[in-house]
Amino acid sequence: MDTDQTNWNAVLRQAVIRVKPDYFALSNAEREHYRLRLDTKDDFRIRQAVLKDVFGIVANTTDELDATLDTFDDSQYLLLNSTLLPLQGIGEDNFFLNEYLPTDVTLLDFSTVGDYARDDHRFQEQARTQEDPDYKIRACRGDIHRCWARLMIDGAFHYADISSLAGYLTDMLDEAGFERIDELIPCQYDVGPNHGNREGNGYVYDKRLNAGGLEGQLQALRDRYYTYMKERYEALLERFNTSPATCVYMRDRTRDNEPQKDFVFSDATALDAVRFRHFVSDGIVASFFMSLACHSSLE
Predict the structure, then answer these.
(1) Residue-wise over 77-89: b if at least 16 C-beta within 10 A, else e?
(2) Looking at per-residue confidence, does 261 or 293 come out higher?
């Protein structure tokens, strides 16, 4: 599908033509290569033009542009991100993985979500061995480190949250458990005298737990619950890995006019069944849709 001809709005088209006049004369493969390996100079100039044409804001340097974006609210970011998505994404959904990738790697290096998940798993496990030489590398069991994306669904821009079923369930239980702990032992964080002071290239975090004298008990309870949830996560991961279902659950989490969907992958077979270039359609074919908000065992 020639997404450059179907999803680009006039503002983005004009911005890109200003920076690279021959862009639309290139082949689809050449356009894709340019977009996904966009250098910092061209990236700034395109964003600069979009910022001026959409918001009437002039930014003459990268610092000025970044400072302007720091002041944006959710609705402004939504407009900016939806305008830029065709420049950033791939495939029929303009899928854009909003995660860090090495400079020599793009989303094109991963055919399926499973390919990305396994590569990220290797990276995470290697990082843990560097921190702890005694750490034993775990086999990949169909998990995916929770990540964020942007894409078009039925012609409308959406933010997406991507996770495994084991991770999704653990996060939901974890949130509910810590809310209960806070009910049992109410607490707050008091600002210390050094909070916010500059130190080197960063700032000091100096907030101190105040649980009315029960700080020790509260920390002990949190630690025990953390250990318990880690065990539950491992058990769920093993269960879903040994009984594959090839399901991709979709949950609508749109709030305050900000379109958001969760994509929850049951196991490795589901991750391998979905290609980034055909993210939504592969999800439909590979499994079934279920409204997690209405009738699901996930909640």
Answers:
(1) ebebebbbbbbbb
(2) 261
